[in-house]
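We were asked to recover a plausible sequence for a given structure. The inputs and outputs are reproduced exactly as logged, with field labels preserved.

PROBLEM: sequence recovery
POSITIONS: 279
GIVEN STRUCTURE:
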């Protein structure tokens, strides 16, 4: 079953397709259209603009909360996102659209306390997104072939490698989290090298967030601080060392140097919801 749910910016979930059901999947949420920018009577570019859409759903009791209590919980959840100016996420299966709930019409569907709702949603990123995380750690046996007699230094590679696949048809943003210890480190995905001028001790990490175009450092006590000024390379898309370079569709080789471990999160995007992902 394909789950439909709203997830707040703090990670709290509200299931929308529980009893007695959800009517969004065939509604406006799945419709899309490009906007056209013209120049001299010809198409200059296509783009996706801010969009509002309606979504119909029912809210009934779930065996623990009454319909009224569930409706209160949903409204409180979406109000927190509006107050924080941080969108929630409307999921259909594993794909989501970042949204704000900006209006809600309701009526009783039947005599058993059930609300028939029409939510008015707004998004400034009107594409479906899926986040897939892959962790890479050097193999314990990755030291190469050792010699039968001890030498002052072992012969071992400083680079480790793997691969990721962007399964969407469009280039996608990537989040790279590098774990310490790491010094003079770099990560290469495809033809682009990602690096920051920030040495990391054991227990520390650095997050390059290509979706938000932010860089965050976390110390070994969990304290988080802005590290945007540490970016390395050339700050230009397509330069080969742009710290927020998007990952192209299909497979991309990955290699990394001088860091203990890292995780790669692909933020895949597509215009049409992936119907083949429905169960």
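RECOVERED SEQUENCE:
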């Amino acid at each position: 079953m394909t789950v439909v749910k709203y997830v707040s910016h703090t990670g709290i979930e509200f299931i929308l397709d529980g009893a007695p059901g959800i009517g969004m999947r065939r509604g406006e949420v799945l419709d899309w259209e490009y906007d056209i920018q013209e120049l001299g009577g010809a198409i200059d570019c296509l783009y996706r603009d801010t969009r509002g859409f309606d979504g119909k759903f029912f809210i009934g009791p779930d065996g623990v909360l009454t319909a009224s209590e569930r409706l209160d919980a949903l409204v409180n959840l979406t109000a927190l996102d509006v107050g924080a100016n941080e969108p929630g996420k409307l999921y259909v299966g594993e794909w989501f659209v970042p949204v704000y709930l900006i209006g809600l019409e309701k009526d009783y569907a039947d005599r058993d306390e059930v609300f028939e709702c029409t939510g008015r949603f707004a998004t400034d990123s009107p594409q479906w997104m899926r986040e897939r995380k892959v962790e890479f750690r050097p193999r314990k046996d990755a030291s190469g072939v050792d010699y039968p007699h001890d030498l002052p230094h072992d012969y071992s590679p400083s680079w480790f490698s793997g691969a990721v696949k962007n399964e969407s048809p469009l280039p996608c943003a990537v989040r790279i989290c590098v774990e310490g210890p790491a010094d003079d480190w770099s990560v290469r995905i495809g033809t682009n090298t990602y690096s920051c001028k920030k040495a990391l001790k054991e227990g520390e990490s650095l997050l390059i967030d290509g979706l938000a175009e932010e860089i965050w450092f976390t110390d070994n006590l969990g304290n988080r601080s802005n590290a945007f000024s540490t970016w390395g390379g050339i700050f230009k898309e397509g330069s080969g060392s742009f710290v927020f370079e998007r990952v192209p569709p299909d497979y991309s080789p990955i290699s990394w140097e001088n860091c203990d471990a890292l995780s790669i999160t692909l933020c895949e995007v597509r215009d049409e919801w992936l119907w083949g992902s429905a169960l």
